[in-house]
């Protein structure tokens, strides 16, 4: 079967952000869908293409992403294609509108027929946290209780939501530049029954933390302010901000480090971390080609750009759930 049930061939399903948020996807749903697709990369059943972008001098960029593979909620999901178009405009913050805007188109891979168009902003946010969460399931200690969030924007909130489902968290530490955003994350954490603290500087955020998620891009006045040597024994760090806040020259020998996709990384002009520091990627972890955590004392890190395959995994999952629930607007083609 190539198409989802109960969707006429002459229609296109449109899903808004509210539609997607209302589907109730869990962290296990997301990491499971990601794991299936990432695990299919070595056999060629899934294909992830590197990001392509047009950059502008003022910081704007336009990016496209494309992936193929068996994506959906079923045990044997149909094979699909997803394309994502994303625009980034930093000046939008002063305009009071989102700095990132994205749209995803989902195609049936057998026929090439587009079956859905959906909001890409929400999926971009949650698939990024889901990539972190999948890495954490292989690299973090299962008993991790203290989560440090360095940066308190969208990624802090999505990571908190997913990590709180997967680990027995008790305490959340926060470090961020914007007070309103920090208060939002703190409120989310308290609503989950977690204690909230603001230890202060970067060193205090790392000391004793089991899980570290860094999503704050450093300013020119404060470059690479996180030292992997300060990670606690047994800690896991997810470097969401392209590892730009970290002293990546100090990773080798201090924290065994994984990336999301070594093939994608090899094509990038600006390496996330030194090649010698990379132990493997998500596909290696999911397939068991490279071992994850060896013991409770090991320090591990995940530096990543984001995968088109992540957008496909979430888009396929959302599409199937939406069709089953009768959610979304059917548009004539």
UniProtKB/TrEMBL annotation:
Gene Ontology CC entries for this record: cytoplasm
Coiled coil (residue ranges): none
Pfam families referenced in this protein's UniProt entry, alphabetically: OCD_Mu_crystall
A GO term, aspect molecular function: hormone binding
PANTHER family in UniProt: KETIMINE REDUCTASE MU-CRYSTALLIN
Protein name: Ornithine cyclodeaminase
Organism of derivation: Albimonas donghaensis
């Amino acid at each position: 079967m190539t198409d989802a049930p109960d969707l006429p061939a002459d229609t296109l399903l449109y899903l808004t952000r509210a539609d997607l948020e209302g589907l109730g996807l869990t962290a296990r749903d997301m990491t499971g869908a990601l794991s299936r697709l990432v695990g299919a990369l070595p056999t060629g059943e899934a294909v992830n293409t590197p990001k392509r972008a047009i950059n502008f001098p003022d910081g704007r960029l336009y990016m496209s992403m494309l992936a193929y593979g068996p994506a959906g909620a079923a045990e044997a999901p149909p094979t699909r294609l997803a394309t994502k178009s994303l625009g980034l405009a930093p000046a939008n913050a002063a305009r009071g509108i989102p700095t990132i805007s994205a749209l995803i188109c989902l195609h049936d891979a057998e026929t090439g027929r587009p079956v859905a168009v959906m909001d890409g902003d929400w999926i971009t946010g949650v698939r990024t946290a889901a990539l972190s969460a999948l890495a954490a399931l292989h690299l973090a200690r299962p008993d991790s209780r203290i989560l440090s969030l360095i940066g308190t924007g969208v990624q802090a909130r999505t990571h908190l939501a997913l990590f709180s489902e997967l680990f027995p968290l008790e305490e959340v530490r926060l470090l961020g530049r914007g007070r309103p955003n920090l208060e939002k994350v703190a409120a989310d954490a308290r609503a989950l029954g977690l204690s909230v603290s603001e230890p202060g500087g970067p060193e205090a955020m790392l000391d004793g933390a089991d899980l570290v998620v860094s999503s704050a891009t450093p300013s020119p006045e404060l470059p690479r302010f996180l030292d992997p040597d300060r990670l606690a024994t047994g800690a896991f760090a997810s470097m969401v901000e392209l590892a730009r806040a970290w002293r990546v020259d100090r990773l080798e020998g201090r924290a065994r480090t994984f990336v999301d996709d070594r093939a994608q990384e090899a094509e990038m002009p600006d390496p996330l971390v030194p090649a010698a520091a990379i132990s493997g990627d998500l596909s290696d972890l999911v397939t068991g080609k490279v071992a994850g955590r060896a013991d409770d004392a090991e320090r591990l890190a995940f530096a990543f750009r984001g995968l088109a395959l992540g957008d496909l995994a979430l888009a396929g999952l959302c599409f199937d759930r939406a069709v089953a629930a009768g959610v979304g607007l059917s548009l004539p083609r």
